[in-house]
């Protein structure tokens, strides 16, 4: 008898949950990444960080070339103390250069991973918001790019796509992009344009 109440309640809740109709939405993540303005801004940040280290990299390459040119000079005899010293310097600079390249690559990759994690979190958050607003129970990733079915390769590609058919209104890619850009422009210190801002991802969606 003690289990009767909770069991009945749980069964009722399970029945109610299972009665909710499934509604599937689609989103083209590749297109979102191409059109989300923040992605371009973050890529510019990465390029700027790479440019910062370019001066040091160029200086080290120049230093290695200078040492190599000295070693090949007719004034330097092979095996002489001067040649041995230059070889040591060259090996040292080369080792430092390789360590520098490895450290910079690791730093940039880590930075890119952090930025991608941020972007992914923002996209996922807006997708959830849109799904909750429009009653979608599942959102799947798909490739919405049109292809030329005239060529054999494209025909095969079309047949291999996971999504065979969908209703246009179930593609939430565009409203998600618009909402992401709207939020980004609000937070961006850059001057805003006078064009109309995109509509919210929770706007009333036509059925």
Which regions contain 5 or more consecutive residues with pLDDT less than 50?
1-7
Task: Count all strands and give the number.
Answer: 2
Identify the strand order in the major beta sheet: 1-2
CATH superfamily: Skp domain
Task: Bin the helical content.
Answer: 55-70%
Entry summary:
By secondary structure, the chain is mainly alpha-helical. 65% of the residues lie in helices and 4% in strands. Helix 2 (29-35) packs parallel to helix 6 and helix 3 (37-71) runs antiparallel to helix 4 (81-134).
What's the structural blueprint in terms of helices and strands?
Elements: H1 4-18, E1 24-27, H2 29-35, H3 37-71, H4 81-134, E2 138-141, H5 152-160, H6 173-187
Parallel strand pairs: 1-2
Helix pairs in contact: 2-6, 3-4
Characterize the structure shown.
- This protein is mainly α.
- It has helices spanning 4-18, 29-35, 37-71, 81-134, 152-160, 173-187, and strands at 24-27, 138-141.
- It has a single domain, classed as Skp domain (Protein Binding, DinI Protein, Chain A, 2-Layer Sandwich), CATH 3.30.910.20.
- Strands 1-2 form a two-stranded parallel sheet.
- Residues 1-7 have low confidence and may be disordered.
Task: Give short descriptive properties of this protein.
Protein Binding, DinI Protein, Chain A; mainly alpha; elongated; 207 residues
